[in-house]
Fold this sequence. Notes:
Blueprint (H helix, E strand, L loop, with lengths): L2 H23 L2 H18 L6 H19 L16 H19 L3 H11 L5 H8 L3 H27 L2
Helix pairs in contact: 1-2, 1-3, 1-4, 2-3, 4-7, 5-7, 6-7
Amino acid sequence: xxxxxxxxxxxxxxxxxxxxALHYMGDVDESEDVVQECLTSVWQNGTVVSNxxxxxxxxxxxxxxxxxxxxGRIDVVPMDDVSEISDEEAQARSERxxxxxxxxxxxxxxxxxxxxxxxxxxxxxEEIALRLGISENTVRNQISxxxxxxxxxxxxxxxxxxxx
Length: 164
């Protein structure tokens, strides 16, 4: 496997695989460790398969299961926030989540920070304004613009995959 191929695999699959592993592991650091181990293994072994995506997801799933079983967890199934989900659903969700985070990462730094403070951290507009020393109206406008951008990117993604 060439360094270019490895770089392409890393760029394309690292984030979705980490999010996928998170459905099993429930811990960000452990999920990243599992994915890094799997990608390192692929690189060291020079593994090239016809369906690389399936191979990578299967490898990550199996590594997650091995780790969980070694910790004494026998009931190894992917989880979302409240219940068990199928492996296929965990994979699909991880890919959607990765696309969303890629879109969030593409926002201007200030807008991204304000959006994350609101949506991820649950802060109210007033709290964000106080912490950043800006007006509530600026917070409202930045969040509105961020959501507008994300909706547009989601629309582009839907069109790309499904033609609508």
